[in-house]
Amino acid sequence: MSVRVRFAPSPTGFVHIGSLRTALYNYLFAMKNNGEYILRVEDTDRTRLVEGAVEGMLDAMKWAGVNHVEGPCLGEKGEVLQIGNFGPYVQSERLELYGKYAEQLLEAGKAYYCFCDRERLEKVREAQKAEGQTAKYDGHCRNISLEDARKRVAAGEPHVVRLRLPENREITFDDAVRGVVTFNTDELDDQVLMKQDGFPTYHMAVIVDDHLMGITHVIRGEEWLSSTPKHVYLYEAFGWEAPQFVHLPNILNIEKKKLSKRQGDVAVEDFKVKGYLPEALINYVALVGWSPEDNSEKMTMAEMIEKFSLDRVSKSGGVFDVNKLNWMNGLYIKEMDLDALTELCIPYFVEKGYVLENEIEAKRDFMKTITKLSQDSMNYLAEVTNLVPMFIGETVEPENEETLEMLKIEEAPVVISCFKTLVEGTETVDQAFASTVMKAIQKETGVKGKNLFMPVRAAISGQLHGPDLVAIIELLGKDLLIKRLEHTLKTIGK
């Protein structure tokens, strides 16, 4: 059997990290098994559609490197195209199909028309809850004959189509992550299949589409687990073979609660904007709920494909820890070629106003130096500009009390004054000067160690920690060094 899997998001806004992981696991499974990974847009809930969400989703998936072979794709001009032999891949373009299959269920007695209005349904559910019962449809319209129901429909009476579940029947299916799962139909609702607006619900559309598109494995979030017995029954009602179901654990925050936008960044776009590398984000997300047999952490996409298996997917929720993501992203940043990394960092210099668009080439060396100094400490690319204030402006102030105290030690005026004299006496502050000047100060003043280096660092950068002192001296240059040293000497002399 050739593996065919799908990622089927709803265009309701941003791409959640959980959706990215679902797409990734589908992709990894398909690639591992020489199968096909397709994308389908499930847009039947017309009340939640967000304009531009499809384009945003396609862009996010392309950026992340989770590429499908069938379905909606972005054209050269940003337009949405559909590629493949099983289309349309957008559910709102498949309404005629759903109507046809709903009619088949009605004729077979596997579904029925329901004319209950919202007010009645709410009263029924409130009464059930008050009596401690499971809130569900009470079957009020189950026994209306199809002939009578069709007359009411023809008369224009508002209606939906519901699935007719058998009573008190065990429905069992084998989940690749959770094993054998059993539900009794008495615990389930007669699900709405077709809504009043003529659109199918998820439950109807997903079965029809997965069958017609030849989907062999349904890999999705565990929130759909309780709906799966209805889906299993629908496959039976149509006389179709059900796919293998795979329900992934939820992604949790560090408090072990379901990951929510209220707790911070959860959208792929958020991480892209901050400057997380797609390879690092994908690598980390893969590990939130799955682990390879050899417990590898840093992996390429090819390595993840090779190692991926469903039996290594956890049953319990995976914790999304931003600190661990930062660590992973930092590893990728450290290993990047400096020129390539600088190119990725340029937009952040421009965004902060440190470099204008027409200055990019003129200031490329400056940005490259800052990037080099930041490379080992950055968690994400937006942090590259954190060091820029250190290198602009004629004066700097101590960043904290500890830095100020270092400027007050007895040796501080001596070493700072000596440094200023040496800077003034050199023709240019280059790497050779920056590499030897501290030894010269030590020889001139006799001050050593912390009391030699720290006052100089504090005087020219306002900080006691950070980039290599030689790099700071060289990048600041003669004029800025003199102005900052003069300012510091005036300040500590007061």
Defining key terms:
mainly alpha, three-stranded antiparallel sheet, 11% strand, 19 helices
Structure description:
This protein is mainly α and 494 residues long. 45% of the residues lie in helices and 11% in strands. The chain has 19 helices and 13 strands. The protein has a 3-stranded antiparallel beta sheet. Helix 9 (278-286) crosses helix 11 (322-334), helix 16 (412-425) packs across helix 19 (469-492) and helix 17 packs across helix 19 (469-492). The longest helix is centred in the C-terminal third of the chain and has 24 residues, at 469-492. It is elongated.
Characterize this entry briefly:
This protein is mainly α and 494 residues long. The protein has helices at 17-32, 53-64, 95-107, 118-130, 146-154, 202-212, 228-238, 268-274, 278-286, 301-307, 322-334, 338-351, 364-374, 388-391, 401-407, 412-425, 431-445, 450-461, 469-492, and strands at 4-7, 36-39, 71-74, 80-83, 111-114, 160-163, 170-175, 179-184, 192-194, 217-221, 244-248, 251-252, 318-319. Helices cover 45% and strands 11% of the residues.
Mean residue pLDDT: 94
Approximate helicity band: 40-55%
% residues in beta strands: 5-15%
The low-confidence runs, each spanning 5 or more residues with pLDDT under 50, are none
Our measurement of the CA-to-CA distance between the termini, rounded to an integer number of angstroms, reads 83 Å
Largest beta-sheet characterization = 3 strands, antiparallel
Q: How many E-type strands? A: 13
Whole-angstrom Rg: 32 Å
Number of helices: 19
The neighbouring-strand order within the major sheet is: 5-6-9
